[in-house]
Amino acid sequence: MTDRVDDLMTKWQTELPDALVPSTEFSKRVMVLATALDEATRATVAEFGLTGADFGVLAALRRNGKPYRLKANELSNALLLSTGGTSNVVNRLVARGLVVREADHADGRSTYVRLTSSGKSLAEDVTLANTKAHEKVLAAIPAELLERATTVMREVYGHLPG
């Protein structure tokens, strides 16, 4: 039985073999896996009434540890969002009582975004549910193979720029 990537590779081999370079199959398989994990995350966060960006903010604040806050610009950098995009997400979360803005007394131009207790609780619930969703996507992979793949991916990342 061939999978989607095998089929794609066979077609390109026939139609335009020069499009196939050593990284082609690897990159296509990474993209298929990333799509499956992303779909699982999107479905999970939607069950909690969140968008992916909402979850990104909540998760970034929660993993930062006590007091579960970051400066607004640090949050934007952590999420790879523009400051305007981050501000829109934070506004939604403030309206839901999941985060609050706090003045930075050391720098009057800066503000912090901090999880509320309900935001912390929701961040934990969604993160744990997302972990289970990802486990389901990867459930058929034997643990030893998953560990080896993780080790190899860590090595691959070590060769990427930046």
Structure description:
It is a single chain. With 162 residues, this protein is mainly alpha-helical. It has 7 helices and 3 strands; from the N terminus they run αααβααββαα. It has helices at 4-15, 24-47, 52-63, 72-79, 83-95, 117-137, 143-158, and strands at 69-71, 99-103, 111-115. Strands 1-3-2 form a 3-stranded antiparallel β-sheet. The two termini are 38 Å apart. The mean pLDDT is 93.
Furnish the topology, listing elements before pairings.
Layout: H1 4-15, H2 24-47, H3 52-63, E1 69-71, H4 72-79, H5 83-95, E2 99-103, E3 111-115, H6 117-137, H7 143-158
Antiparallel strand pairs: 1-3, 2-3
Helix pairs in contact: 2-6, 3-6, 4-5
How many beta-strand runs? 3
Q: For the record, give the distance between the C-alpha atoms at the N and C termini, rounded to a whole number.
A: 38 Å
| Shape by Cα distribution | elongated
Percent of residues in helices comes to 55-70%
Overall structural class, as computed from helix and strand content, comes to mainly alpha
Q: What are the secondary-structure elements, in order, as H or E?
A: HHHEHHEEHH
Q: What fraction of residues sit in β-strands? A: 5-15%
Task: From the alpha carbons, calculate the radius of gyration and give it in angstroms.
Answer: 20 Å
Core attributes:
162 residues, 65% helix, 3 strands, elongated, mainly alpha
Briefly say what this structure is.
Helix content is 65%, strand content 8%. The protein is built from seven helices and three strands; from the N terminus they run αααβααββαα.
